[in-house]
Amino acid sequence: MGQTVSARSSKEISGGVHTPRQHDSAHKHVTGAAEYIDDMPMPAGALHGYLGLSERAHATIKSMDLDAVRAAPGVVDVLTAADVPHNDISPTARDDEPVLADGYCEFYGQPLYAVIAETREAARNATQLAKIEYEDRDHKTDVIDAMAADYPHVTPPLKLENGDVKTAMQSAANRLSSEMRIGGQDHFYLEGHIAMAVPGEDDEVTVYSSTQHPSEVQHMVAHALNAPSNAVTVNARRMGGGFGGKETQGNQFAAIAAIAAKRHNRAVKIRPDRDDDMIATGKRHDFHMKFEVGYDDEGRIEALEAVFAARCGFSSDLSGPVTDRALFHTDNCYYLPNVLLTSRPMKTNTVSNTAFRGFGGPQGMLGGERVIEEIAYAVGKDPLEIRKLNFYGETDRNVTPYHQTVEDNIVARIVGELEGSSDYQARRKAIIEFNKTSPVIRKGIALTPVKFGISFTATWYNQAGSLVHVYQDGSIHLNHGGTEMGQGLNTKVAQVVADEFQVDLETIRITATSTGKVPNTSATAASSGSDLNGMAAANACDQIKTRLVAFACEHYGVPEDQVTFVPNHVQVGNQLIPFPDFIKQAYMARIQLSAAGFYKTPKIHWDREKGQGRPFFYFAYGASVSEVSIDTLTGEYHVDRVDILHDVGRSLNPAIDMGQVQGAFIQGMGWLTTEELWWDDNGRLRTHAPSTYKIPLASDRPKEFNVQLATWSTNRERTIRRSKAVGEPPFMLANSVLEALSMATASVADYRVCPRLDAPATPERILMAVERLKQA
Ligand code: MTE
Ligand code: HPA
Ligand code: MOS
After folding, report:
1. Where are the alpha helices (DSSP H) in 181-244?
2. How far apart are CA 25 and CA 502, in angstroms?
3. Reduced to 3 states, what is the DSSP secondary structure of residue 105?
4. Left, alpha or beta for 478 (phi > 0: left; psi -120 to 50: alpha)?
5. Does residue 2 carry a pLDDT above 70?
6. Is the CB of residue 357 below 6 angstroms from any atom belonging to ligand 3?
7. What is the spatial distance between Cα 379 and Cα 699, in angstroms, rounded to a whole number?
8. If you average pLDDT over residues 278-289, what whole number do you get?
9. Sheet of strand 131-136: strand arrangement
10. pLDDT for the residue numbered 361
C-alpha cells in the first residue's frame, strides 16, 4: 500500500486558500439550478400565508372585522395577536416588537393579521376584505420632527469622549458648524423574505428561512410558540442576498409560518410581494448629523463635537448597535484629539430600521468626511490634503474616540499608491482647467479612504462553531454556523478545510446551515463570516488531524514529525498513502473521524457605559478615486472613472474578494446617488417598488472601473490564514462619488463654498445645489 517518496508529485491541491476559485454555486445561480426556499417542493397539504398590513402610521385599532376575510374562498384561518402564544420578536429582548400588532399600530404597513389559505393567491386576495376601524394618533416619521416632538430614544444613546472638547474648541484658531442629512436604503435583495414551516411530532417544527441568523430564528420561533429551542430546527441553504436585511427581519415570517403550521398540522409558507417586503421590513437608518469642528489654519482638526440622530422606526431592533457603529466610524482614518460624539436613536412611526451593509458605519464615516470637506473648502485646499494632514499616525496620534489604539494603520500607503496609480494629481489639475471653459458640463474628482473596524461590538457575538465529518471513502462533509448569501462564505470555508487536509476542494461537500448541526451561532454579519467560521472549521480539522496523526504513529511506528498531510495524500515516513486509503485504515482502526469545532475572537472587549475598550480585533482599509461629470442645467450626472485599492489582508480567495469589492462599491454608489426612500404625510412609504426606488443599473457603473486588491497586505493579527474581512468595508469606497459630485457642483461658484450636498445626491439635489451656488 502507498507509494514511495520518490513517486511523490509536487502538485498542489486544487482550490486551496489564496486561490481565485469561483463561487461554489456560481453555475447554479446562472442556470437556475440553485435551490431557494420558493423552489422547494412543498409537502402534501401545504398552506400559504399572507400578511394584512395597517393603513395608518400611528393609531388605536378600534375594531378589526375579519369576517369577510375568513369567509373568502380558500381561506383556512386568520391569525391575530391573540393567536400568538408569545407576541414578541424583539431581537434585543426589549419586548417592543409584536409579531402582530395588538390594539394599536405604530407604522403604516405594520402587520396586523395573517391569512392562511389553500393558495397564496387566495390568502393575498382575502387581505383586501378586512374592515379595520382606526382612531388616529399623532405620528412623526421624520427624525428631526421626532426630536422636536420629544419622541423617545428606542435604546439608550452612546457617548464617545476623548480629550477636552470644550477647551480645545474655544482655543481653536477656526471653528465651523454644519449639518447633513444622510439617506437610508432598501436592501433590494433579489430573493425577498420567505419562510416555510413544516410541523413535526409533539411541539416540534422545522423552519426553512431566508435568514442570516438561523439561531435567532430558532430562538424567536420557540419564543413565539412558547416552546423550548430544542423543539425548533431552522435550516438555511442560501439566500438570494441578505445585505443585513435578513439579520433580524426574517423572524416575523418564520414565527407566523411556524404558528400556523402547528395550529393546522400542515406545512405553511409565507412569501410577501416585493412591495410588502419593502413596506413591512426594516431598511438602512437615515441620519441627521450636526457638528462643530475647531481646526488650525492648516486644516488640522483640534476639536470635534457631533450628534448623530437616526430614524430608528417604531422598535429598537438593532438600532442600538447600528447607531453605536456610526459613532465608531466618524473618525474614519482621522485622529480626533478632542472629541465628543453622541448618538440619538430616535423612535419614529416608520418601519423599524435594521442592519444594512456597514451597519451604521457608512453613515458615521460619511458625516466624518463632510467635516473634512467643510474644512477643505474653508481653507481653500484640496480635500485630499486635509485628509492626509489628519491621518492617524502609525506610532503616535493613534488613539480613537473609543480609546482603542490603531495598531495596524496602513492608510498612508494605500492612499499614496492609489494617488499615484490613478494619476490623481494630474487629473485634478486637468479637471479644474476643463471646468474653467466648460459652460454646462462640469467635472469633479475625489479620493476618499476607508478604515473599518472588524468584530461585532456585542463581544459575545464573536464566536462560531463548525461540524466536520470525514467519511470512510475520504469525502468530507462540512457544516458551519455561517450562512451563504452570495458572498462566497461557503467556498472560502471549504477552501480552508481543503487546505487543512490538503485535499482538492472537490473533496469537500458544503451543506445547508442548520441549528441542529451547529448550535448557538451568531448572525452572519459584521463581515466576520469567514474570520469566525473559517477558524471554527480549522479547529474541527485540527482535532481530526490530531487523531489521525496519533493513529499513523501507532499503526506505522513512526514519530509524529514523520506524518504530514501532503496534496491528496498522507505521508507516513517514506510512504505516500492516498488520502482515501489512509482514511479507510483509520476507520478500520476505529478512529473518530468527526469533530465539532469552535472559535472565539481574542483580545476584544467593550465597556459601553464608559465608551472605552477594544471593540475591534483589527481594521480593514481601502481607498477610492471617483471622477464624475454633471450637467449643470439638469442635474444629471455620470460616474466616469473609479479607481480602487482595497485591503483584504492575505486574500482567502481573490476572485470572490474582487467581486465583493466591486459589488459593495456599486451598492454604496446607489445609496449615495439614486436610491431615495420617501414617505408621504400620512407616513406611507411611496418608494416601494423598482418603479419608484432606483438601484444602480448596469449602465450606471463607472465607465472605467479599475479595482485592485492590496496584494502586499497581511493581517498583523492571527486571523484565518492572515486574511481580512471583506463584506462591508468596500461599501464605503463610494464616499468618493458623493465628494466628486460635490466638487463638480462647487465649480459653479469657483470652489469657494462647500456645496453641502445631502445624500443621496439625486439629480434633483445636484440641480438645487447648483442653483443655490449660482446665487452665492
Ligand atoms: N454579498 C452578497 N453577494 N450578498 C449579500 O447579501 N451581504 C454583505 C456582505 N456581502 C452580502 C454580501 C453583508 S451586509 C455582510 S455583513 C457580509 O457580506 C456577510 O458575509 P461575510 O461575513 O461572510 O463576509
Ligand atoms: N454588525 C452587524 N450586525 C450586528 C452587529 C454588528 O456590529 N452587532 C449586532 N449585530
Ligand atoms: Mo451585514 S449589515 O453586518 O449583515
Report:
1. 214-225
2. 22
3. strand
4. beta
5. no
6. yes
7. 37
8. 98
9. 104-105, 59-65, 131-136
10. 98
Please say if 728 is a catalytic residue.
yes
Residue list, ligand 1 pocket, CB within 6 Å: 241-244, 357, 485-487, 489, 524-530, 660, 663, 727-728
Q: Is the pLDDT confidence value at 4 over 70?
A: no
Separation of CA 355 and ligand 3 centre (Å): 6
Strands 339-347, 569-572: pairing is: unpaired
Cell numbers placing 741? 459630485
User: Cell numbers at residue 53, please?
Assistant: 398590513
8 Å CB contact between 69 and 52 = yes
Q: Are 143 and 309 in contact (CB under 8 A)?
A: yes
- Catalytic pick among 728, 739, 764, 771: 728
Helix/strand/coil for 280: helix
Residue 575 has pLDDT above 60, yes or no: yes
> Of the candidates 518, 502, 509, which has an alpha carbon nearest to the alpha carbon of residue 466?
518
Strand, coil or helix: what is 112? strand
Helices 361-379 & 735-746 angle (0-180, nearest 10): 30
Helix (H) or strand (E) segment spanning residue 345 = strand 339-347
Please say whether the beta carbons of 64 and 80 come within 8 A: yes
Extract the runs of DSSP E, i.e. beta strands, from 139-266.
159-162, 174-182, 195-199, 205-209, 232-236
What's the average model confidence in pLDDT over 405-414? 98
Pairing, β 301-313 against β 339-347: parallel
pTM of this structure: 0.97
Helix (H, G, I), strand (E, B) or coil at 673: helix
Lookup result for grid cell 430562538:
219
Identify which of 371, 363, 370 has the alpha carbon closest to the alpha carbon of residue 294.
371
Residues with CB under 6 A from ligand 2: 247, 318, 321, 325, 355, 359, 456-458, 461, 523, 525-526
* Angle (CA) 153 142 100, round 5°: 65
Are 424 and 447 a contacting pair, CB within 8 Å?
yes
End-to-end CA gap in the chain: 86
Decide: helix, strand or coil at residue 730: helix
Q: Kindly report, residue by residue over 453-485, the tens digit of the pLDDT.
A: 999 999 999 999 999 999 999 999 999 999 999
- Closest to 257 (Cα-Cα) out of 190, 223, 317, 206: 206
Q: Do 99 and 252 form a contact (C-beta atoms < 8 A)?
A: yes
**DSSP secondary structure string for all residues of 39-70:** GSPPPTT-EEEEEEE-S-SSEEEEEEE-HHHH
pLDDT digits (tens, 9 = 90+) for 554-570: 999 999 999 999 999 99
From the CB of residue 45, how many other CB atoms can be counted at a distance below 10 Å? 10
Q: What is the DSSP letter of 759?
A: B
CA distances from 360 to 102, 163, 241, 466 (A): 30, 24, 19, 29
> What spacing in Å lies between the alpha carbon of 740 and ligand 2's midpoint?
30
213, 215, 325: which to mutate for ligand 2, most atoms within 8 A of CB? 325
Q: Is 451 helix (H, G, I), strand (E, B) or coil?
A: strand
Which ligand is nearest to the Cα of residue 727, counting in written order? 1
Q: How far is the CA of 491 from the centre of ligand 1 (A)?
A: 13
Of 216, 354, 359, 487, which is best to mutate to test ligand 3, by the most ligand atoms within 8 angstroms of its C-beta? Answer: 359
Determine the Cα–Cα distance for residues 309 and 286; give it in Å rounded to an integer: 9
CB distance 635 to 697 below 8 Å = no
Q: What span, in angstroms and rounded, lies between the C-alpha atoms of 602 and 384?
A: 35
Closest CA to 311 of 187, 188, 184: 184
Go through 458-471 and write b for each residue having 16 or more CB atoms within 10 A of its CB, e for each that does not. Answer: bbebbbbbbbbbbe
Q: What is the pLDDT of residues 241-282, one digit of tens each?
A: 999 999 999 999 999 999 999 999 999 999 999 999 999 999
Distance from the CA of 321 to the center of ligand 2, in angstroms? 6
Find out whether 84 and 113 touch, Cβ atoms under 8 Å.
no
Q: Which of 733, 656, 245 is nearest to 452 (CA)?
A: 733
pLDDT of 381 reads: 98
How many other CB atoms are found less than 10 A from the CB of residue 775?
6
